[in-house]
C-alpha cells in the first residue's frame, strides 16, 4: 500500500445529546477559553470553539439525536478522495459522501470524517495550564490489535507503547493540534471514544472543571475521569500541556507522564 496522504489538521468533536446542548457548549467554551461560532447545520447542530489570539480552531461540538454521544474526529487533507481510498483499503467502510465530506467507520465501529484542509496551521493556546489535545479510542480486547493497526495505517503515524501496557499513542508530526491514544479495555464493549485534556496540576484542574459544571467520577493511575454537563466522560491527564502535540520526539522520545 502506498503511503497515505498527509493529515494536515485534525478537529476533535464533542458529540452530545440535544437536551444538554446549551449547557455543554457553554461548559466547553469556558474550559478552552473559546468563543462560540454561529451555529450551523439544518438544526443548528454544529458549533466551532474559536480560540483566542488568532489561533486556528481544532475543537467542535455536534448535537446528536441518537445515543449518549461521545467523540469523533475530522481528518483534514489536501487530497480527500485519496485518503478515502486509503481508508477503505485499510479496512474502513464508507457511510456517506457529499461534496467536501466523507463519513467513514473504522473496523471496530468508530465513525470519523475526512474533509478538505482549509489552511489551518496554528494550534490553540494553553488555557489555565490545560490543553484539549487528545482523543482516546477505547477498544475491547478482541478488536484492539486490528484497530490500532488501522489507525496507524490510516494516518501513517507510528504507534508508541506508553508507560501503561494498555495504552498506545500514535505519534503525529509536529504542528498538529490533536493526537490519538488507543486504549485496550479490560472487557468486551462496543468501541467508543472520549476527549482527554493535558493538565499541569490535576487537582487544581479538577476543582476548576467542577466549578464550571463538571462532575468527578474516578481517579486513575495518572488521570482523573470527569463527566461534563451532558453526562459524557472525559479525562484530565497528568501530562505537560506546554509540550506541543507531536513534540515528544524533539524532547527525546518521552511520552509524557500519563498513558491516558
UniProtKB/TrEMBL annotation:
<feature type="domain" description="Glyoxalase-like">
    <location>
        <begin position="134"/>
        <end position="237"/>
    </location>
</feature>
<protein>
    <submittedName>
        <fullName>VOC family protein</fullName>
    </submittedName>
</protein>
<dbReference type="InterPro" id="IPR041581">
    <property type="entry name" value="Glyoxalase_6"/>
</dbReference>
<feature type="domain" description="Glyoxalase-like">
    <location>
        <begin position="20"/>
        <end position="115"/>
    </location>
</feature>
<dbReference type="InterPro" id="IPR029068">
    <property type="entry name" value="Glyas_Bleomycin-R_OHBP_Dase"/>
</dbReference>
<dbReference type="Pfam" id="PF18029">
    <property type="entry name" value="Glyoxalase_6"/>
</dbReference>
